[in-house]
């Protein structure tokens, strides 16, 4: 199904130059001179190679239709991730690098959506938000700054997240999986 390039979103599976690609990240740029374009970071489904491609916003791309199934993350072994189809209870394995950096968000028994093309897994969609625990950050000093500034923190999954100054070590926070940003304190 043909789609305009400016509609491309992370998680899409597209066909470009005769190959199937999973879109990892997109950024629309509007330069001062000339037309806007979209920079797309994508991974070849067959070889696993990554590339960046630039499309004009008026260009069209072929969005491939994929089947989605509800799965549950089970465990990882080496560089393989294991999931269970929640309907049939079949187990599937995918290489960890297929998920890129978002593999760090996986938690035991997490519900995810898996994309399949011709019965073969080609991508995994995580929940929009996850709860993580702050394991290391700078201490909060009252009156340290007048403006809201964020400080770096390391989460229990090893990822770095910029958090507000009032959040301290040991607190649970909600993090957006799309861009690894702080959302709120966990309730």
Indicate the proportion of strand residues. over 45%
Shape: flat
CATH-scheme architecture of the largest domain = Roll
The major pleated sheet works out as: 6 strands, antiparallel
- Total domain modules: 3
Count of beta strands: 16
CATH class category name of the largest domain: Mainly Beta
Report the helical percentage: under 10%
- The run of helices and strands is EEEEEEEEEEEEEEEE
Q: What does the secondary structure layout of this molecule look like, with pairings?
A:
Layout: E1 2-4, E2 13-16, E3 19-29, E4 37-44, E5 50-56, E6 60-63, E7 67-77, E8 80-85, E9 91-95, E10 111-117, E11 120-125, E12 129-137, E13 151-155, E14 160-163, E15 172-176, E16 181-185
Keywords summarizing the entry:
single chain, 187 residues, mainly beta, SH3 type barrels, OB fold (Dihydrolipoamide Acetyltransferase, E2P), 3 domains, six-stranded antiparallel beta sheet, five-stranded antiparallel beta sheet
């Amino acid at each position: 199904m043909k789609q305009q390039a400016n509609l491309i979103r992370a998680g899409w599976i597209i066909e470009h130059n005769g190959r199937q690609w999973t879109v990892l990240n997109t950024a629309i740029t509007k330069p001062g001179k000339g037309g806007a374009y979209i920079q797309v970071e994508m991974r070849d489904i067959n070889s696993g190679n990554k590339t960046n491609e630039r499309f004009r916003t008026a260009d069209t791309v072929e969005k491939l239709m994929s089947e989605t199934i509800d799965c549950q993350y089970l465990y990882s072994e080496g560089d393989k991730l294991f999931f269970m189809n929640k309907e049939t209870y079949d187990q599937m394995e995918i290489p960890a690098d297929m998920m890129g950096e978002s593999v760090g968000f996986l938690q035991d028994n997490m519900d995810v959506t898996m994309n399949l093309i011709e019965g073969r897994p080609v991508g995994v969609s995580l929940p929009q938000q996850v709860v993580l625990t702050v394991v290391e950050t700078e201490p909060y000093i009252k009156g340290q700054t007048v403006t809201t500034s964020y400080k770096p923190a390391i989460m229990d999954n090893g990822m770095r997240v910029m958090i507000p100054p009032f959040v301290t070590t040991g607190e649970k926070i909600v993090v957006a999986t799309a861009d690894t940003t702080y959302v709120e304190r966990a309730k």
